[in-house]
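In this section we walk through a basic example: taking a raw amino acid sequence and producing a predicted 3D structure, encoded as discrete structure tokens. The instruction is simple. Fold the sequence below.
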Amino acid sequence: MELISPILTKRLKLRLLTKHDAAALHRFRGHQTATRYLSHEPLSVEENSVRLSEQLAHAEASTAEWFHLGWAIELRATGEVIGDARAWNSSNPPLPGKIPADHAALGYILHPDHHGSGYGSEAAAALVAWLFGDRGTRTIYAGVYEPNLASRKLLETLGFTRDHHFPADQDSHGKGLPSWRYRLDRPRNMS
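The resulting token sequence is shown next.
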């Protein structure tokens, strides 16, 4: 895996996940409200550890072309991990993904105690800038369940537009909810 520096914003530090993040991640990955609109239910301590191990293996196997990276979202002032994010173009690097190498997907979660403070927008904007600038990504996708109005607003504020609607009967994660795939293309002045 290539060396990837942390991303700093005014209030946040985004850094690649480590094995030492398990307890911090479980605070929200095991939280009913935080996982309401995720592709999984609240995770047990063991399920969270397995998920983190898989994330770390994906990051280790990532290449410059095919990647799957998990990021801890930390408050710069305290070092507290308040959420995590993922950026990927392959579910199993270094094998090619289902989308072109110059495209990527983005996902994020914050502990509910930190909702409404703009941290999600700040973290997502930083990852969008990293994907477009450092990775040379041309298009970023993000999936969101239709009732998750806060996440839809966050994406739309960053310039994402609705790309494809999936009815509830096409939900493959068991939530039984309709969803949207959002899309953001790299600005022409960054080409």
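Looking at the output, two observations stand out. The longest helix spans residues 45-61. The chain has four helices and eight strands. In the next section we compare this with other chains.
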